Amino acid sequence: MSASPRLFHLVKYRSLWTHVRRKVTTWSPVGAAFNAKPLRRLDLFEKNVGLFGVPELSCPEGFQAATQTALKNTELLLHRACSCSPGAETVECFDQLSDGLCKVADLADFIKVAHPDPAYRDAAEKTCIEIGTVVEKLNTNVELCKSLKNLLVNPNVAAELDPDTKRVAELFMFDFEISGIHLDDKLRKQAVALHVKLLDLNNEFLISSHVPNRIAKSAIPEHLQVHFASEGSFIQIGGLHADSPDDLLREVAYRIYLYPNADLMECLEELLKCRYKLAKLVGYDSYGHRALKGTMAKNPETVMSFLQLLTEKLSQRTAKDFQMMREMKKKLNPRNAELMPWDHPFLSGVLRAERYNIEPSLYSPYLSLGACMEGLNNLFSQLYGVSLMSEHPGAGEMWSDDVRKLAVVHETEGLLGYIYCDFFHRRDKPHQDCHFTIRGGRWCQETDQYQLPVVVLMLSLPHPTKSAPTLLTPGMMENLFHEMGHAMHSMLGRTRYQHVTGTRCATDFAEVPSILMEYFATDYRVISQFARHYETGQPLPESMVARLCESKKVCGAADTQLQIFYAVLDQIYHGKPQDRSTTEILKEMQEKFYGLPYIPNTAWQLRFSHLIGYGAKYYSYLMSRAVASMVWNQCFVQDPLNRDMGERYRREMLAHGGAKEPMLMVEGMLQRRPGIEDFVDALVSELNPNFETFLMDSES
Questions:
Q1: How confident is the model at residue 2, as a pLDDT?
Q2: Minimal CB count within 10 Å: which of 77, 99, 193, 299?
Q3: DSSP state for residue 13 in the 8-state scheme
Q4: Residue 39 has pLDDT above 80, yes or no
Q5: What is the reported pTM?
Q6: b/e string for 366-388 if b means 16 or more Cβ within 10 A?
Q7: What does DSSP assign to residue 596?
Q8: Angle, in degrees to the nearest 10, between helices 512-521 and 474-492
Q9: Which phi and psi angles does 31 have, rounded to 5°?
Q10: If you ran DSSP here, which 8-state letter would residue 673 be given?
Q11: In 3D, which of 503, 510, 467, 480 has the Cα closest to residue 406?
Q12: pLDDT tens digit string along 91-149?
């Protein structure tokens, strides 16, 4: 081993906080790596290995080279897939073809939003467009489709396929069908045209839904103008300011930010029409029916039954929550006590704070980023025999100096994959917490080795200071655990095909592993292993954790009902067309499924950006939470660190990615097949108070 890498390794950990060194607190290597200040690398003598270790990506121009290589390989695999005898080799060719394109497109998809250098972002954007065009052509390639169809329609050949191979073949065929491959030439051209039009409409709506609204300064009270961005004689309102204690400020922001934009309204109406036309063209009753094929819910009728039953079972609790909010508003503002939509987030927060002392600044000193990463490492070690190991990246491998690289290593299986942690706030970086698959796992017959998965976790945490490491609020800590749930889904899966690797599964199942991690994040038996004061080493008191958990139940029914309203709206928009506007539909659904009044001249649906990525699937958050709740209460609540249960969870739910029907995975874990009533009861029971917390509070 040469001297220089060792030198860099020592320098990397030299800047641990003086507080940490002086006091009793000590960290494991992974905790130390995240509680150390990032140092600018000295790469003078190291060869640039390229982004994510891809040699071509040592410069922006490399994206074009990587794209051309992928497209050449695509041509070879296309010929092979169309000429080989029907069988497992056909599916293997399809998966290799998909993998070659995804490895370039998925990486570019991340770089175009995350890289600080505009040249890299632009090059990645061009790659996304180029690969996307090729994928559209492949999805309408009749010869390619025939090779797959010959496999599936031949009963003798299909019978010889193992279950995973047959499912992946059916999933590829579904991709062909929704592109209109089975239609005659004229109708197929119509389907392709609708696809192209929808790409443009989706992009237009997604961008425009986040654009601020402008209004003349003279139109709002002068004392409120300081809260908004100024633009000459106008102010820009780019959000709801939902947490502001000023009633008038919340109202002004709500009315102006949600004021209808005629062009955006036309875009949404056209988008929904095109989705319906395309779904009908390829043989579905509605876009909702097309989108829900292969999910746990299976169809829109099941989703609506779930949402309606949940509404009924929550109705009394929701009414009580709204009454509590009215009383609180009357107490805070006797002259204007009517409860309005802009009051809900603020007043529910006030009620939580009044009932439980959950000021985030009281918790943050116990939740340094390093401590939380150490906690995750301990949890994964005990549940799965997996360790997170901080790894020294190569020169040019990262897109920012503050990104950390983790190797995920199993005690007997060895290296499982890599997680790149892009955790800190950066200019021009999206302000959202999310998980990106950069490379999917698959068994490579050509090398007789497993292709290791690579993912990125993106957060937007504050940078460490000279006197303290990055300190997380409880919400930030839960988000970290949530996103790490997605990452471990990718790492612990060992699917034969990358088309179904990790989180490439039904949307209403994909959130189960991440939401389940939120339960671990709020269980004191887990938290007590890592949450300690970064200066003194004192553990986070159990009573504080209990109060935090109970506080979430305050106004929980009303919060859930708001999510139900959004999910219902999404379903209605993606059902059969109605002879009325999206605003008229919203008004009716808001009255029926939410309860707070619709405000004239507002159009909340124009800010509902989830309609793009989660069209007809917004219910997934609620259904995934119901499943996660059942898994937690049946399998982990007695002992959240039980290795046998962790292994069973990996074996039944995490290992398969999307290679198995989602409900079969749930059934395997729970040893029973839950129905709609079970989902609803799981969510309702979450709101029941824990009387032990009240006893704990009274004793302390």
A1: 38
A2: 193
A3: T
A4: no
A5: 0.92
A6: bbbbbbbbbbbbbbbbbbbbbbb
A7: S
A8: 130
A9: -65, -40
A10: -
A11: 480
A12: 999 999 999 999 999 999 999 999 999 999 999 999 998 998 899 889 889 999 999 99
Q: Which residues, other chains included, contact 101 with Cβ-Cβ below 8 Å and sequence gap of 6+?
A: 70, 74, 131, 134, 135
Q: Write out the two tokens for 107.
A: 């990486």
Q: How far is CA 150 from CA 155, 170, 174, 249, 479, in A?
A: 10, 12, 15, 63, 46
Mean pLDDT across 412-423: 97
Torsion of CA 49, 412, 168, 127, to 10 degrees: -10
Q: What is the CA radius of gyration of the chain?
A: 26
Quote the CA–CA distance of 281 and 631 in Å, as a whole number.
39
- Rounded to 5 degrees, what are φ and ψ at 29? -55, -40
Owner of token pair 């379903």: 571
As a dihedral over the C-alpha atoms of residue 462, residue 541, residue 512, residue 375, rounded to 10 degrees, the angle is: 60
For the purposes of burial, counting CB atoms within 10 Å of the CB of 660, is it exposed (0-12), middle (13-18) or buried (19 or more)? buried
Taking each continuous run of H as one helix and of E as one strand, the counts in the chain are 30, 10
The residue-averaged pLDDT of 230-243 equals: 93
- Nearby residues of 185 by Cβ (< 8 Å), 6 or more positions away: none
Residue pair 696/675 in contact (Cβ under 8 Å)? The answer is no
Helix (H, G, I), strand (E, B) or coil at 387: strand
- Which two tokens mark 62? 């490399």
Beta bridge partners of 439: 454
Determine how many CB atoms are found less than 10 A away from the CB of residue 225.
14
Task: Supply the residues annotated as catalytic.
Answer: 483
Residue with tokens 């490491």: 469
- Residue 5: band (very low, low, confident or very high) from pLDDT cuts 50, 70, 90: very low
What's the chain's average pLDDT? 92
Give CA separation, 194 vs 172, 481, 546, in Å: 20, 39, 52
Give the pLDDT score at 42.
59
**Distances in Å between the alpha carbon of 680 and those of 444, 627, 686?**
42, 10, 10
Q: Which DSSP string do the residues of 278-333 spell out, in sequence order?
A: HHHHTT-SSHHHHHTTTSSS-SHHHHHHHHHHHHHHHHHHHHHHHHHHHHHHHHH-
Residue with tokens 């492949």: 138
- Give the span between the Cα atoms of 482 and 476, in whole angstroms: 10
Helix axes 556-573 and 620-631, enclosed angle (nearest 10): 130
**C-alpha to C-alpha distance for 17 and 467, rounded to whole angstroms:** 7
Please answer whether residues 587 and 341 qualify as being in contact, where contact means their C-beta atoms are separated by less than 8 angstroms. Answer: no
Q: The tokens of 165 are what?
A: 């191979």
Tens of pLDDT along 541-579? 999 999 999 999 999 999 999 999 999 999 999 999 999
| One-letter-per-residue 3-state SS of 412-479 | CCEEEEEEEEEEECCCCCCCCCEEEEEECCEEECCCCEEECCEEEEEEEECCCCCCCCCECCHHHHHH
> What does DSSP say about strands 414-424 and 454-461: parallel, antiparallel, or unpaired?
parallel
Other CB atoms within 10 Å distance of the CB of residue 519: 20
Residue among 496, 472, 495 nearest 484 (CA): 472
Residue 376's pLDDT band (boundaries 50, 70, 90)?
very high
CA distance 31 to 8: 18
CB-based contact 343:250 (threshold 8 Å)? yes
Q: Is 623 exposed, middle or buried (0-12, 13-18, 19+ CB in 10 A)?
A: buried
State how far the Cα of 47 lies from the Cα of 197, in Å rounded to an integer. 44
- Sheet containing 213-216: order of strands: 213-216, 234-237, 229-231
In tens, the pLDDT along 166-219 reads: 999 999 999 998 888 989 989 988 998 998 899 899 989 998 999 999 999 999
